[in-house]
Amino acid sequence: MGDPSGSFLNSPWIKNLNFSNLSIWKDYGEYGVVAAIVIGILIPVLPSVWFMGKKRGKVRGVPVEVSGEAGYAVRNAKKKQLVEVPWKGATTMAHLFEQSCKKNSKNQFLGTRKIIGKELVSSTDGRQFEKLHLGDYEWLSYEDAFARVSNFASGLLKLGHNRDSHVAIFSDTRAEWLIALQGCFRQNITVVTIYASLGEDALIHSLNETQVSTLICESKQLTKLDAISSRLTFIQNIIYFEDDNKANDGSLGNLSKWTIVSLSEVEKLGEKDPVNPSLPSKDGIALVMYTSGSTGLPKGVMITHGNIVATTAAVIPVIPNLGRKDVYLAYLPLAHVFELAAESVMLAAGAAIGYGSPLTLTDTSSKIKKGTKGDATVLKPTLLTAVPAILDRIRDGVVKKVEEKGGLVKNLFQVAYNRRLAAIKGSWLGAWGLEKMMWDIIVFKKIRTLLGGQIRMMLCGGAPLSADSQQFINICMGAPIGQGYGLTETFAGATFSECDDTSVGRLVSWEQGGYKTSDKPMPRGEIVVGGFSVTAGYFKNPEKTDEVYKVDEKGMRWFYTGDIGRFHPDGCLEIIDRKKDIVKLQHGEYISLGKVEAALSTCSLVDNIMVYADPFHNYCVALIVPSQQTLEKWAQEAGIAYKDFPDLCDKSETISEVQQSLSKVAKSNKLSKTEIPAKIKLLPDPWTPESGLVTAALKIKREQLKAKFKDELEKLYS
């Protein structure tokens, strides 16, 4: 779900997700070890009745012709028609919110941890880091949240905001974000969503292009707004969240031309003088959501209320037994379509949403004060969304800790993991029976406490998740992972693993790239998505809209994703390429940059990578941000002397080691010789949204990277 490519690994907060410093790795205990050994001996000789045949999947792919173009489509086999709403009458998010609040009025809805204290801790190099002492979650019920939303909706108009102008939300994920959003929806006001990490130029472009008159933000953003105030044309009001109970103290002189009030002040205005709601229609524009902007300035996608409720209705059946007993941990950016779609589903289901932060997620996260529990430990969520980089980070942390422990711990973990993996791949009863229970108790239960110990399902989107990582998380966390594929342009909706999706997906041939829907044994081509989740187009960009959005003769709206996929015989869609990432080399060989990057990023020495191919040469090269911890550990073991990390990255021995590791990974992923970078450049500084080298969704900005490291790339080809 969300942007289909990219990596969160180089986000500052992802790097601070420390999963290797785990307190769970204690001795397993004498009896546990004995029991494990007994099971390991007995299970292989149990009768063949333990084995079960693989289930035969239902074939759902059918050939179609749309707008005179042959394609290959997948439609939900259980439905006669596409699902449009989660229940009758919930035609917009404003209607859905009001109805869900009435149905679940007394249930917990929005939870926020109380900040007990803060302190600054100095590191050995003199830098200071903020540490938080956090308490329990404090909850708003659905009834309380509806009252606050209604008050904010009224107060916004009393403040002087015109319904016909846009409101923007420029903030990290938090309960107030959702309250402000629903308040705007209640008065039929279109909301512009902007990543909190967006750079100045992109922020100014987004606010001016949409002519935002009221901006909602955290108080910490006031300084940034003060610096660019002269370039913001339409802003009249700023509503800030009381992070530290700080208002404009007069030091931000440029903001004096605007009306600046706190969220609570706006709510008080509305409570004192309520205004009747003006609920939207399903075709009304709910959001202008700015995409990551991997090339140039970000584009604003116009999302209707109908788009949001259609995706919500489609996902609810995917999560088994979803309902009021579920607790969801929200920490990904709400300005990203994946998180907003997930929270919309939780709202519709009556689940509880507890807000956290990537920097406070676990007991060992960077902003957690020693002795304070992380968000997951305190909340004990049953449901969690994640991007592949987070799951990869969890996997790396567990594996590193097992390696460090060595001996009995390492052997026992490996036996347990291999037994569970063999059981799952073989589809035999040991996957769910006595052996599974025993391994869970002896080995995996300790690991699961990392995320609270109650996770029953995880939703993964935003980028491709490797099969190895999926299996690892399935086994170690004991929870299935539902992988979603979609884009902002389809409000995250397109396909979902092992579910009957309610939208329509199809392939169309891309002759130039050699992908055809007639390919055997599996049809291949560009993925095109149609249905109620397909959005209205790009804001003030009709040319780009007409380029990638099409309406067929039956009125079905289609979005041309630019992704290349293939359908397996059972109807499973696999993403195999991206049109814009394919480069033709000097001797005619095609190389898919995204495919190569995805494969090589699994190398333990690599934190981020951009592969570059010059069409006038017959080989590719790569820019690599190495894993500092892993590389320094290698250097220590190899006896490599170095002054600092940049010095280590420049050493020929280091470059040779990384290249050898890349070659091994490339061969294991069956990459061809031309797909293996012939030369590499190691870059010591991470790529972050603040640097402008990756998007807010942590997708690499290929053009920006090429421009910044132009000289380095030229040297690699010299």
UniProtKB/TrEMBL annotation:
Catalysed reactions, semicolon-separated: a long-chain fatty acid + ATP + CoA = a long-chain fatty acyl-CoA + AMP + diphosphate
Keyword Transmembrane: yes
Domain of life per record: Eukaryota
Transmembrane helix among keywords: yes
InterPro entries from the UniProt entry: AMP-bd_C_sf (IPR045851), AMP-binding_CS (IPR020845), AMP-dep_synth/lig_dom (IPR000873), ANL_N_sf (IPR042099)
Gene3D superfamilies on file: 3.30.300.30, N-terminal domain of ligase-like
Transmembrane segments: 31-51
Domain AMP-dependent synthetase/ligase positions: 132-539
One GO term describing the cellular component: membrane
Record's keyword terms, sorted: Membrane, Transmembrane, Transmembrane helix
PANTHER family the UniProt entry points to: LONG CHAIN ACYL-COA SYNTHETASE 8, LONG-CHAIN-FATTY-ACID--COA LIGASE
Identification of the protein by name: Long chain acyl-CoA synthetase 8
Organism the protein comes from: Senna tora
